[in-house]
Design a protein that fits this description.
This protein has 268 residues and is α/β, with parallel strands linked by helices. Helix content is 36%, strand content 13%. The protein has 10 helices and 8 strands. Strands 1, 2, 3, 4, 5, 6, 7 and 8 form an 8-stranded mixed β-sheet that branches. Helix 1 packs parallel to helix 7 and helix 2 runs parallel beside helix 4. The termini are far apart. The relative contact order is 0.15.
Length: 268
């Protein structure tokens, strides 16, 4: 037992030395970070400029967008790889041109059925959000070597963080923009301090995501000791005060939510 404990302590100390200082996130504006999942889609269709504008009005810290590349090399925000669920069209984003996608209509709710919404282009999103709200890019299908210069063109390279979906994306971002804060999900098998330290040491994330239920006070404190924010997903069919209380009780200081306005009012 003593040998096991000493081994764990030594390995932990070596891991701590090996972990690089994480890239800082955009300058924090509030004590608790609220990330509007696909914008505020309580009021407007998800991933539309209207939903993003509402998140700004709510006072959210970040708007989460899903970045994809069109057939002709432009960028739009849509969660699904196809337009089938959200629009009156059919096909994969990667097989449609930007102009074809912009002509599609997104259906509103019953109360908004007379309104026409469109899939937004990435540059439209940057123009809307600049200096008003930070952007959390769920990096679905795009090239970091092209996206980062665009962020610099808009003067927004310090107003963005990037959620990584593959090892290739991580490598590409580290090459294109070494200082960009990159977010990774905590894997299901990282259930204790040793597992979390091993994950951090191996992958060097700047921010941790995942399901908020994966975390406890000890794991949150451990990540915080390495200056790594933990802003996981709180959105679910049961999201509300009980979920928020549980997340706050674990020491979390940020959450992705489907109800940004309600969460902000609850925090107040």
């Amino acid at each position: 037992m003593i040998r096991s404990v000493l081994s764990s302590l030594i390995w932990g100390a070596l891991s701590l030395q090996a972990i690089a200082q994480p890239n800082p996130v955009p300058q924090q504006r509030h004590k608790f970070i609220v990330i509007a999942h696909r914008g505020d889609h309580v009021y407007f269709p998800e991933n539309t400029l209207a939903a993003y504008a509402q998140a700004i009005k709510d006072g959210a810290d970040y708007v989460e967008i899903d970045l994809r590349t069109t057939k002709d090399g432009k960028w739009v925000s849509l969660h699904n790889e196809s337009v089938d669920r959200m629009t009156n069209g059919k096909g994969l984003i990667k097989n449609l041109t930007f102009d074809e996608i912009k002509k599609l209509k997104i259906a509103g709710s019953d109360s908004l059925k007379n309104q026409v919404y469109r899939i937004p282009g990435f540059e439209e999103i940057l123009s809307l959000c600049k200096d008003k709200i930070y952007i959390y890019i769920d990096f679905k299908e795009a090239n970091p070597a092209l996206i980062y210069p665009l962020l610099k063109k808009f003067g927004m390279e310090k107003q963005v963080l990037v959620y990584i979906n593959s090892a290739a994306q991580f490598t590409q971002w580290r090459q294109a923009a070494p200082k960009m804060p990159l977010m990774l999900s905590l894997p299901d098998d990282a259930k204790d301090s040793i597992g979390v330290i091993g994950f951090i040491n191996k992958y060097q994330p700047d921010i941790l995501d995942g399901d908020f239920k994966q975390y406890n006070t000890k794991l949150v404190a451990l990540a915080t000791s390495y200056h790594i924010p933990v802003w996981p997903d709180g959105q679910s069919g049961s999201e509300g005060p009980a979920v928020w209380d549980e997340a706050i009780g674990k020491g979390l200081a940020g959450l992705q939510t489907d109800h940004p306005e309600a969460l902000i009012n609850y925090l107040k």
